[in-house]
Amino acid sequence: MTDWEGIVARDGPAVWRTVYRLLGRRADAEDCFQETFLAALRLWARQPVQHPRAALQRLATARAVDRLRRRYRESAHAGTVTWDALSHPAPSPPDRAAAAELSQRLREALALLPAKQADVFCLYSLEGWAYAEIAKELKVSVDAVGVLLHRARAKLRAELADVREEPVAHSTRVVKGSL
What we know:
Blueprint lengths: L3 H20 L2 H21 L5 H27 L14 H20 L2 H12 L4 H8 L3 H18 L1 H5 L14
């Protein structure tokens, strides 16, 4: 029998940080958090899991990217502005608007990436995983992780190129080559 209370207590905060950082909305993050543990319950029932935290992080990232893709498709059809995406803690309203726009653009760009590239980028850049950990979790070689990360960064740079060229407030400045 799996100790789910222990797993949620130990790994839940990391899963929450992952989904909230990717989605940026509390309601979406809460739904994604629950979906992650539901998917984990199904995974544990099918097969033994050697690295519970890694599996949870992988599931959380996949669920969050899927939700971003749905959000991107829905907003493209609706053509409406999502005002709650503009709420981002920063010193001034212009800084908040610039940071929210950049965050939204990054989320949209992540949603356009192929699944493995998005997973590798999120696990490496947002969660701080090592190449070897990512390779083991995604069942690819360490070299493949490097290639996937390189391609993801290149696509993100291309998608965000117009944002990087505009003058941005000092607190939200994107440094060239940081992606």
